[in-house]
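#help-structures

NK: newbie question. if I give both the sequence and a SMILES, will the prediction place the ligand too? trying with nicotinamide-adenine-dinucleotide
OV: yes, paste both and it writes out the complex. here, I ran yours:
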Amino acid sequence: MKRMRVAVIGGGHLGQIHARLLKANADVQLVAICDPQPLVQQKVIQQFDLRAVGDARKIIDEFDAAVVATPTTLHHEISRDLLIAGKHLLIEKPVTSTFAEGLDLLTLARTHGNVVQVGHVERFNPAIQTALGRIGTPRFIESQRLSGFTFRSTDIGVVQDLMIHDIDLVQWIFNGFPSEVRAVGLSVFGQNEDLAQARLEFPCGAVASLTASRCSYQPARRMNIFGTHGFASVDMTAGKVQVVEVPSWIRGREFDFFSLSSEQQAFIREKLFTEVLPKTELPIEPANAIELEQRDWLQAIATGESPAVPLTSGVAAVRTAESIREQAMAHGWMNKEPQMQGVFATPATRFDRQVDPLPAILQAPQRKVA
Ligand SMILES: NC(=O)c1ccc[n+]([C@@H]2O[C@H](COP(=O)([O-])OP(=O)(O)OC[C@H]3O[C@@H](n4cnc5c(N)ncnc54)[C@H](O)[C@@H]3O)[C@@H](O)[C@H]2O)c1
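OV: that's the protein plus ligand as structure tokens.
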């Protein structure tokens, strides 16, 4: 079989991870890493024994597909040229800085028939997949995604940088887009928010409460999922899942807990998470989620099927991120005079809390990861 010729655009933190995995993939010929920084180019030549090129357009005829791992504000401009040139793309998250840019890429990809995967890598996290199989229909989700300040991705705020992973996950899990968004945020260092909290309500009634910070003294990537049949607590960093599966005799309210004697109540209190609502830690097979993501994308190119995280999902996540940011910017801190608003003490701008109906172009059905 002919190997897929792939270029990596952007040789920073994520670009190097992609390059390492692509180089080890026997189905891929990694052609070059494209990055304008001389120091990065030197590193690529030494560590990867690969060609380093400043501008991908110089070698446009030498690859069939590319991973775009540049700063987010460049994703649109770079991906645009590549789509028009007929390249299949894996674009890192967030797919674009704005919803309008995302829609533009969507139109181009439809016109030119490119296969585009977006780097919402948590979809491939086996811990999430395992948790979802054990709790019935998810109804309420709370997530925390916290990191220290890395000085990377400062071209965007924490909603697009970190929370976007959880936005994509909840939109996928609840199979829809929020109809109502509330949010607050705070900026610590620069021109964008560094902390944010959002409450998303979905048309089916499901609710997600998302917290993200990139100036936290304790890193964490956690998600608690409450479903019709139980609860799962997922530690996405450690790849650990604890579940509480609620037995049918409790779900069916087969007897009245409140008529129990005090001894029986004491027994239940003591045995609550061992016998009544048994808590179990589930075994998780370790997996490299970025490698699975790349393989899914290459498979989609080979078969012409939709990748697990199509461009529509990436653009929809950007749209929700924009709504969250708008809400955070519009939030009024009422106890100060003059009134402070948004993630800074900026002049007031009003935003409607209701989200506009989703454009039809984003309503394509989504495939679950196998
Ligand atoms: N999937 C994930 O979990 C994850 C994690 C971190 C970052 N990201 C995303 O990956 C992207 C890159 O982030 P990073 O942390 O690797 O950033 P980084 O700053 O480490 O690397 C970006 C690289 O792009 C290069 N670059 C700038 N302009 C370019 C151009 N015109 N052509 C080619 N290269 C160019 C820079 O020189 C730099 O080396 C961002 O969109 C970020 O949001 C995703």
